[in-house]
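Hi support team,

I submitted a single chain yesterday and got back a structure, but I'm not sure I'm reading the token output correctly. Could someone confirm the output below corresponds to the sequence I sent? I've pasted both exactly as they appear in my results page.

Thanks,
R.
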Amino acid sequence: MKKQLQENIDFYYNEQGYVVLTEHFHRERGYCCGNGCLHCPFDYENVPEEKRKRLLEARPPKDGA
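Hi R., thanks for writing in. Yes, this is the structure output for that exact sequence:
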């Protein structure tokens, strides 16, 4: 049985009303899906290289970096 997602833990709604998956959700899943998710903690490892490069350049620096 799949776990039911919890708002503000696994996802939130952005200003446009879209569901945005959190870093917590991605870490629980355990891998990069390759879609270029906003909160991907895996540095977009399965995203095609050209898009991956753009995403990494646009990503704000992580805390403590």
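A quick pointer for reading it: The CA atoms of residues 3 and 36 lie 23 Å apart. Let us know if anything else looks off.

Best,
Support desk
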